[in-house]
Amino acid sequence: MRKFDSCPLAVIGTVAIDEVETPFGKRERAFGGSASYFSYAASFFTPVGVVAIVGEDFPPEFQKILEQRPIDLSHLERSQGKTFFWRGRYRYDMNTAETLETHLNVLVDFNPQLHFPSHPEFLFLANIDSLLQERVLEQAGKPRARFVACDTMNFWIEKKKPQLLQVLARVDGVVINENEARQLTEEASLILAAQKIHSWGPAKVIIKKGEHGVLVFDEGHFFALPGYPLETVFDPTGAGDSFAGAMMGFLAKTQDVSFENLKKAVALGAVVASFTVEAFSLDRLRRLDLHQIEERLEIFRKICSF
Amino acid sequence: MRKFDSCPLAVIGTVAIDEVETPFGKRERAFGGSASYFSYAASFFTPVGVVAIVGEDFPPEFQKILEQRPIDLSHLERSQGKTFFWRGRYRYDMNTAETLETHLNVLVDFNPQLHFPSHPEFLFLANIDSLLQERVLEQAGKPRARFVACDTMNFWIEKKKPQLLQVLARVDGVVINENEARQLTEEASLILAAQKIHSWGPAKVIIKKGEHGVLVFDEGHFFALPGYPLETVFDPTGAGDSFAGAMMGFLAKTQDVSFENLKKAVALGAVVASFTVEAFSLDRLRRLDLHQIEERLEIFRKICSF
Which residues, 6 or more positions from B161, have their beta carbon under 8 angstroms from its beta carbon? Predict the structure, then answer.
C-alpha cells in the first residue's frame, strides 16, 4: 500500500465493483465507487488519501489503477466478505441512473480508524452511509480539517436523514445533484433548496445538474455554469464523484477556498467529469493528463463568455 | 392602427387569448400569443411590425398594450369569428406546458398579405402553422429580408412536418426548445440534433432549455448559457417568444448577425425571458425598461464568468 508523509486531502467513500449498462453497451465487472472516482480525479492536482473498505474478491488490477497515481491507500482496508457492489442502468435519459441492485457487503461492518501522520486539511465525505461520514467527521472533521465537504444520494436521504442532517451541520460545503437537493429540502426551486441547505450548516452549496451544468451558492455569491457540451455521453457513472474530486483537489492544491477560486475549481470539476463520461469506468481518466484538462478548460471558458 | 414608415423587423405569429394555470394561480383571459410576446420584447430594441389576425372578441385593452410601444399594427387583421385561444397548465415541472385546449378559430382562414412601405430586413416566423410561415416567406423572405429565423412547436412538428422542413430550408436561423429539437430530429443528443437541423438549412440553431439555459450553434461556433437564476417562476408562458423577440430585436437594432453579436443577443433574450416569467401574461414586461434589462444583463455576465 502506498503511503505519504502528508496528504492535504482525504476522502471517505466506496471502492466498488459495478455492473453498468448504457445505451452504448454493458460492462459486467467495472471498477467503480465514489472514493475511486473522487481520488483519481483529485490526483491530477494533489496527493489524496482514500478511506475505504474492499472485500476478498477485490481485483488486484483495480487496486493497481489507484497505486499508479499519488493516492495514499494506507486506509484502504481489506476485509473478509465481498466488495460493495452496484448494478445500474441508464436508458434514454443519461441524467438519471436506475439502480437495479446495491449490495453493501463489507460496508456493513466498516469502522474506519484514521491514522494519518498529519491530519488532512481538506476532507471529503463522498457518497456513503451517513453514519460512516459521521464517524470520519469525529476523527478528522473540523477543527482538525480546515475545509470539509460532503456528498450524498437518494438512498441515504430516505434511510438516514437525521444522521445526514447532523453531518450537514458540521461541514463547510455540500456537493449534491439537483434531484437530491429537491428531495432533501422538499423545495422545487433550486435556489430555495440551496438556501434551505445553507441554513442547515454548509456555507457553500454546489448543485450538479448533469448535462445542464452546475449552480454554486456561496453565502450570497452565485455562479452558474452550463454543462460542457458532449456529442455523446457513453457512461455517466462517476461523473459527480470525479467532479467533486477535481474540485476538492484543486482547492487543496491552491489552499484557497475563496468564491473566486471555487469558481475555477468547479469549472475544473465539470471538465474532468466531462472526460469521465466519455468511456466506461475510469477508462478515460486513465488516459487523461493535466494538459488535456487545461486545454478543455480554456475551450469551456470561451464557450461560456459573452 | 399604428403605422411606421419602416420597420427593420417584422414577425408573423399568433395574437391570442390564453387561459393559464400555474401552481401560483390562474388567469382566465390572459393576453397571449407568440407575436404578442415577441413584438413586446423586441420593442425594447427596435420598431417591429406584427403580422397576425384576431377575432371580433379581441379586447381593445389588449390591443392598447401593444399600441403603447413602437409596434406597427398595420398588419393586425381583425376578422369575423373568435380570436385564437390556448388553454394550458403548468404543474410541478415549470419547464413543460400541458396544453388542455387549442382553438385555432380565425387562424384557420388567415391569409396574410404584406404591404410594408419597405421590406423589413429582419423577419421572424414565430410559432404558428408552417403553411402561414411559408406564405409570409414567399412575400417577405430572402432575398428581400437579410436575416430570417423561425420557431415552431410539437403541434406543427406532428401535423405539418413536410411544410416545416420546407420552411427550415429557407431560413438563416431557428429558435427551438430542447424537446422540440429532439422530436424534430429524432436525436437524443442536442449537439447531434443541432447538426441535423443545420444540415436542413439554417446556419444558426438556437436551442432553448428553459431554466437550464440556451445552446447556440453557428456554423462551427458554439455558445452555452446557463439559465438566469430565478427563485420562483410564476408563469412560463411566453418565455420562448419573448426570448426570440429580444434576440431578434437586438440583431435588427445592431444590424449585425456575427457570432459575437449573436451571443449578446441571446443573453439579452434570456434576460428578457427571465422577466416575462415573473408574472402572468405581459404584466412584467409592461413594467420593464431598458435600464432594468441592462442591469440584469450585467448581473448575468458576472454570474457566468470564471
Answer: B184
